[in-house]
Write a structure and sequence with these properties.
Layout: H1 7-34, H2 41-50, E1 76-85, H3 88-91, E2 94-102, E3 105-110, H4 114-117, E4 123-127, E5 132-135, E6 137-142, H5 181-187, E7 190-195, E8 203-211, E9 245-250, H6 261-290, H7 309-315, E10 319-325, H8 328-341, E11 347-350, H9 358-361, E12 370-373, H10 391-397, E13 402-404, H11 416-425, H12 430-435, H13 439-444, E14 462-465, E15 476-481, E16 484-485, H14 512-520, E17 530-532, E18 535-547, E19 553-558, E20 566-571, E21 574-579, H15 581-586, E22 595-606, E23 608-611, H16 661-670, E24 672-677, E25 694-695, E26 697-700, E27 712-714, E28 719-722, H17 741-752, H18 761-771, E29 776-780, H19 783-800, E30 806-810, H20 818-823, E31 827-830, H21 856-862, E32 867-869, H22 880-890, H23 897-903, H24 906-911, E33 923-927, E34 937-943, E35 948-951
Parallel strand pairs: 1-4, 1-5, 6-7, 9-10, 10-11, 11-12, 12-13, 18-22, 23-24, 28-29, 29-30, 30-31, 31-32
Antiparallel strand pairs: 1-2, 2-3, 5-14, 7-8, 8-9, 14-15, 15-16, 17-35, 18-19, 18-20, 20-21, 22-33, 24-26, 25-28, 26-27, 33-34, 34-35
Helix pairs in contact: 2-6, 6-7, 6-8, 17-19, 22-23
InterPro entries: Amidohydro-rel, DHOase/Allantoinase_Hydrolase, Metal-dep_hydrolase_composite, Metal_Hydrolase
Signal peptide: 1-23
Protein name: Amidohydrolase-related domain-containing protein
């Protein structure tokens, strides 16, 4: 039933309501007249108003005419005829045209109106000739400036010993402008980085987005991308939004020196509870001020606490948190924390298990964090053991943003783009792979209005590449930061990349099956392949490489692109025919039907070899329970008498572990079938574990145990010593400053002159080294120390009438003595293959294009030195074939494919005196292309020693 209201009733109600409001206003007016309004009322109200402002750029930012980072006197630049990857539309936008840079700002992209640049008096025009142009690369996890190169104890400024929670610390206060990594990063196209405190604290302090360009001011502050208004105590305009701030948090293993995981989460909760108290007090204070209740806050200062002001900003949503976190258990704890205190996380870093728990990540308060990860650097500690190369693609498939990072100096800042290239190789789409080091990264930290994209109004950070940026070895031709050109003009870049193919996105294999298996097995899928001892026929073979009778690599067959692909027949692991299908199959005799494998234009090539890492010596490098244990170092303590040997020389073969994941992944993913490992171990922060790490062994990486036929290639391969200046951060075994160089060389001289009885292990093997019956591999970096060792070699040979087989391993500065090393007939194994000025002994590197025309590798080869390459850590062995590709590409055409193969196969065999005869040498079949191309993957290993073919898929 509907009831009609009479007009006079409605009127009476309205009159009553009006009277009530009038009475309330009179009462409020009366109260207001009795309040004492403080003189700074407007200041207080302005500050209170600013608390509600969301962080970000002002609305007018994109219309700016000049950058706050503009260096007066910088020419405007017009980049013409470019293929421009802008980073816009999730990285899918590609324009053909020009880019105009002026006064530190991108003025136009694509079709640039001539009227924009015609009036400019000082204009530099660059013809890109159709080459790719991208935004400057952005690394969101770097310790550049905080761990400056070369590393020194005095400049180790990343972690605080003053408790797990230190949000008041600022990375800028430890940022060193003399870091040699700045120029190296720029040489890789990196223009901006997030300089993070370390992960040794739960809340490690405030991070800063930095430009790598050295400014005319020369100060750390002048390198900050967008300084928060509070950085120098400047006042905040309440009418403008505040700038984003950045902070580092961490959980898991790295914080355990302060307690357990439970202690860490409690430390978080306690800190955020204190911050919440301050925030609530501020909100209450402002509520009273804005209501005019000045009497209730008379005499009170605005509630604030310097210790917790950063966390208060976190709770107000004004801080982009980068959270170091690896495992599901830690993600769960932090996600619960964000919901308890209601604050967002910008990124989870490292995040080895993130791809296994996407739904958990999506429960983070305020939205799903981006995930900043390595491409292939996994298993270095227990937390990262389940990390996967397929994680970027799996995360993207779950609509989670992916960022690739270096954690410099863990990975050289220069090779950030290589992380994106590898992510693409293992399945991440091209636009997301490039976005992962540009636009996605910039967006994740609130900086996409300035960096990571090419659009009008953005910072003038631009890279011109010699090839498609996802092509392995892509190198900057030019780099601009704030419109300032950064690279030398007299270095050749891109020789050998003139063909159209280099401008295209590289094709990559299908890894769908492997991805599914990875998730199914929670990161630890079985890696053992299926074997076939009968006949296997490989069809559609493009090329075949094999060893000749002298043990060198030769090309046996190359199919003409205009004719039929080749066929290769293998019986009981032995290659019996390589040629046309007609010739190889006509006389084929097999008791059972052969297995047919289509290589899709792929290659068969000798298995690769790796040296330098503790591959097979440990499963998880930072977990002692999975390794050999600590060596006795005669220079840091007495060797137990039970050894009966002064130097305590031991054999790697006694500690070999077969079936480690790094070894199997190197075998099945990269065709690395043989490894030589010693007991030597050096980490980024700790020097060598012994001056005399003993005797190395050579083994097959795919073998299941030491008793399997062919598993041990050579039980004793070489004698190893380490000569170098003390490590700046941790001495041998992390204890003390280390031993002097003069002491090390004096000891080596004595031992080579039969200073110990030949009845001892030390005496026996140093005698063999002096006689030249076993290689003496010396891990050394400094050219000065190498010079002393060359003199020592000459002295020992004259004194004993022998010829020694000496190899310099590591050898960062070997290029400075290339001619002398060649004359002394000393070999060189470069580790890493691309130089890095890690410590003082490594500082004089020859970086190669785009900084220098020569590389160390090229210079040594030009002087006739037998050179090979190695890997310092076990996880890096899986990238061996990419290292060979890089070596060839950086040589500007001076290293051909045959020479590249030799760097990680026959040259290593010669230097280490590991002779694997032609009839026992493994071959690797790759589908889809050359062993050195991104289009290929390992399909099978052909093993004559074991009489079988092992299939990877």
């Amino acid at each position: 039933m509907t009831t009609k209201r009479r007009p006079w009733v409605v009127g009476l109600c309205a009159l009553f309501a009006a009277a009530t409001i009038l009475a309330s206003n009179v009462l409020l007016s009366s109260q207001t007249r009795t309040e004492r309004i403080p003189k700074n009322a407007q200041e207080i109200l302005g500050r209170c108003s600013s608390l509600r402002q969301a962080a970000g750029p002002p609305p007018s930012f994109a219309k700016r005419e000049v950058s706050d980072r503009f260096e007066p006197g910088t020419n405007a630049t017009l980049i013409r005829n470019a293929r421009i990857w802008t980073g816009v539309d999730n990285g899918t936008q590609v324009l053909h045209g020009d880019v105009l840079l002026d006064r530190g700002v991108v003025k136009a992209v694509g079709k640039v109106d001539r009227r924009l640049y015609a009036p400019l008096e000082n204009l530099t025009v660059v013809d890109a000739k159709g080459a790719w142009v991208t935004p400057g690369l952005v690394d969101l996890h770097s310790h550049v400036g905080l761990l400056p190169l070369p590393s020194m104890r005095a400049t180790f400024d990343v972690n605080s010993p003053h408790g797990p929670v230190v949000p008041w610390l600022r990375a800028i206060d430890g940022f060193n402008t003399h870091d040699e990594a700045f120029q190296l990063g720029i040489a890789g196209g990196v223009t901006s980085v997030q300089a993070l405190p370390g992960s040794g604290n739960a809340i490690g302090g405030q991070a800063f987005m930095m430009k790598l360009r050295r400014t005319s001011d020369r100060s750390p502050s002048s390198m900050i991308l967008e300084p928060p208004h509070s950085i120098n105590g400047t006042s905040v305009d309440s009418l403008l939004p505040p700038r984003w701030r950045h902070m580092k948090q961490a959980c898991g293993e790295n914080i355990k020196w302060y307690g357990t995981r439970m202690d860490t989460v409690w430390a978080f909760r306690q800190a955020y509870n204190e911050a919440r108290k301050v925030k609530n007090a501020q909100d209450d204070f402002c509520m009273k001020a804005e209501q005019g209740l000045w009497g209730s806050i008379e005499g009170q200062a605005f509630p604030d606490d310097y210790r917790w002001e950063m966390l208060v900003d976190v709770l107000r949503g004004r801080v982009k948190i980068s959270h170091h976190c690896y495992e599901a258990v830690d993600f769960d704890g932090i996600v619960r924390l964000t919901n308890e205190f209601q604050f967002p996380i910008a990124l989870f870093h490292h995040a080895s298990e993130a791809y296994l728990v996407p739904d958990l990540l999506k429960r983070t308060w305020g939205g799903t964090p981006a995930i900043a990860i390595f491409a292939t650097n996994h298993r270095y500690k227990r937390e990262s053991y389940r990390g996967s190369e397929f994680a970027p693609r799996i995360l993207a498939d779950n609509d989670i943003r992916v960022v690739m990072k270096t954690d410099h100096p863990v990975i050289n800042e220069r090779y950030l783009l290589n992380e994106a290239q590898q992510a693409h190789y293992y399945g991440l789409s091209p636009h997301l792979a490039l976005a992962a080091v540009t636009s996605t990264a910039a967006t994740a930290v609130g900086m996409s209005h300035r960096i990571g994209v090419l659009r009008t109004g953005a910072d003038a950070d631009v890279v011109l590449w010699d090839s498609h940026p996802l092509q392995l070895g892509a190198t900057p031709v030019k780099v601009w930061i704030d419109g300032v050109q950064q690279l030398p003009e007299d270095v050749q870049v891109g020789v050998g990349k003139e063909e159209l193919e280099w401008k295209k996105t590289p094709g990559v294999p299908d890894w769908g099956k492997e991805r599914r298996e990875t998730v199914k097995w929670e990161g630890l899928p079985p890696l053992k392949g299926r074997t076939e001892e009968g006949t296997v026929v490989f069809t559609n073979v493009g090329r075949v490489w094999a060893k000749d009778e002298e043990g060198d690599i030769e090309e046996l067959l190359r199919a003409d692109v205009d004719s039929e692909m080749a066929t290769v027949v293998v019986q009981k692991g032995v290659l019996v025919c390589a040629g046309s299908s007609l010739s190889c199959l006509h006389n084929l005799k097999s008791s059972s039907p052969p297995e047919i494998v289509d290589l899709q234009g792929g290659t068969i090539a000798p298995g690769l070899m790796t040296y330098g890492s503790p591959l097979g010596m440990e499963e998880i490098p930072s977990e002692p329970s999975t390794g050999n244990g600590e060596l006795y170092d005669p220079f840091s303590g007495d060797v137990p008498k039970i050894m009966g040997d002064t130097a305590g020389v031991t054999r790697a073969v006694d500690a070999l572990q077969f079936g480690t994941r790094d070894a199997l992944l190197s075998y099945y993913r990269a065709g690395v079938t043989v490894a030589t490992s010693s007991l030597s171990k050096t980490t980024l922060f700790v020097g060598p574990n012994s001056i005399i790490p003993g005797l190395s062994a050579t083994f097959r990486t795919g073998a299941t145990n030491a008793l399997e036929g062919g598993a041990l290639v050579k039980e004793v391969t070489a004698l190893h010593v380490t000569i170098g200046r003390p490590h700046p951060i941790g001495g041998r075994n992390g204890r003390g400053p280390g031993v002097s160089v003069s002491t090390e060389i004096a000891a080596l001289r004595r031992l080579l002159l039969e200073g110990e009885s030949k009845d001892t292990e030390t005496g026996r093997w140093f005698r063999k080294a002096a006689e030249g019956t076993i290689p003496l591999v010396i891990d050394v970096s400094s050219a000065d120390i190498m010079a002393s060792l060359l003199k020592l070699k000459e002295y020992i040979e004259e004194a004993r009438g022998t010829t020694m087989r000496i190899v310099f391993s590591h050898a960062t500065e070997a290029h400075l003595l290339a001619q002398k090393i060649a004359k002394a007939r000393v070999g060189v194994i470069l580790i890493p293959s691309r130089p890095f000025p890690n410590v003082w002994d490594d500082r004089r590197i020859l970086p190669g294009p785009p900084l220098t025309n020569d590389t160390t590798l090229v210079k040594l080869m030009n002087h006739g030195v037998t050179v090979a390459i190695g890997a310092p850590e076990g996880w890096q062995a899986v990238n061996t074939r990419w290292d060979l590709t890089w070596a060839a590409l950086e040589s500007n055409g001076r290293i051909d494919e045959q020479q590249a193969y030799a760097l990680a196969s026959t040259n290593l065999e010669k230097l280490l005196n590991v002779r694997i005869p032609k009839d026992k040498a493994d071959l690797v079949a790759y589908t889809g292309g050359s062993a050195l191309s991104m289009s290929s993957k390992v399909a099978a290993i052909v093993s004559p020693e074991r009489g079988m073919v092992e299939f990877v898929q």
